[in-house]
């Protein structure tokens, strides 16, 4: 049998004039010596392309190969012949319909059980053809996306409402149980966000439709509109899951847990009454705590941050706008501090990530006020205190008082840069002498997007050259390893890996300010913020701009992306 398949492979390559008989025989010997089959060897050696490998593999088995590349179009009528869950479960894609003959791409056209299942579900004669597993997976993701599923479920739910209206049935009669199309629509929207790696889902009623947008890597992306009549039903379903009041139109906050791929995902809910209905934002929990080593610090920056955390008292702040990764940094820091055996207590509104053990997490709510919770916490012999956010003078004063009386305090603050944290705390009424005694570290962070592997060399624009003060030598810089320019940007149309966005994922850039004695003395002297910033840079602080440029030169992100996250004076 092995000899037969090998001879068929040789016949194919020779017939297609890809290899001579002698070249194939040599490849067979080399493949055997390396413990590989000849087809894998030829592909790894770059002797044959992916398409040629697939055609040869199909010829060897007596199958027909159908290539499904990213440009392949398939009509909606054909796609709809196989339902979403079947296509995903079986990893199959219908390609064309000729009378009652439905051509279906699959990984094994000789799988009789698969063919019988498809015939039973479609009522068609199945004509199986071969496509590679990678091609099928990408095609199923493209033609059977959760966006399309959500749109179709929403249309069916709207039809249910219209049918109800025509039959004059009361609204309360409409089934909103677990099997209803309303639930299917909401679940498809949530699962689409989870599959795409979104951090937020925005359901925003408009005059003619319900807008659905995902926040992916800090950017909003539009999903298919939902019928406007679904807006109150979906809002009501979300409020029910989050145990919020459905009887009044008012701003509300809550949360619920969503089971996905065997895991419980925490989803926070914010409801705002707006002109066209209730606007609902769903914030998706971040999952497990990251290791501090995974945060993305440079070697020196990470060492300086850990050294600051190890101090017996004081305050360490993470600063930046909303969504810049401040809380993620602090949770990773708390995880590192747990290994030191210290008692840790957190006061959060709300608790963003539930930690199984090692930290006493206290949610601030109607049962536990900030003032009462903080007073009890300070009497609980905690050595490390995490405060979710310093956003009021009372919290600032209490946090600094705790840092001044033997606690290591971690918290977040909204400022543009690290030196600005000192100014913000002074504006909250804290005396310079007290700040000089308690400041240990301030880390400003941003999360620019990571360039996808489809990135292309891109010369910086005139505006970027001026903003970053680049010289001709900078623009001509090349990577010694590749000989290519260090300046990259996203490809125009992206690729399947990044869903056409050109970027995939995010990475942090940092600005870490530490407080040796001479800088603490400057704070006590109440010097202007510009003097503090200059002293911090002289002490070795890399600015967000500096760290961003390092990441750009490493080919990780683009200059334009870094520019969109930082202020340029």
Helix-strand layout with pairing:
Layout: H1 2-15, H2 21-33, H3 38-44, H4 50-61, H5 76-79, H6 84-90, E1 93-98, E2 101-106, H7 112-122, E3 125-130, H8 133-143, H9 146-166, H10 181-196, E4 200-205, E5 209-216, E6 219-222, E7 226-227, H11 231-241, E8 252-260, E9 263-274, E10 277-284, H12 299-309, E11 314-319, H13 326-338, E12 344-348, E13 360-363, H14 370-378, E14 384-387, H15 393-404, E15 408-413, H16 420-427, H17 432-438, E16 439-446, E17 449-451, E18 456-457, H18 462-467, H19 472-475, E19 488-489, E20 503-506, E21 509-514, H20 517-524, H21 529-538, H22 544-553, H23 559-563
Parallel strand pairs: 2-3, 11-15, 11-16, 12-13, 12-14, 14-15
Antiparallel strand pairs: 1-2, 4-5, 4-10, 5-6, 5-7, 8-9, 9-10, 16-21, 17-20, 18-19
Helix pairs in contact: 1-4, 2-3, 3-4, 9-10, 10-11, 17-20
Pfam families: MshEN, T2SSE
Keywords: ATP-binding, Nucleotide-binding
InterPro entries: P-loop_NTPase, T2SS/T4SS_dom, T2SS_E_N_sf, T2SS_GspE_N
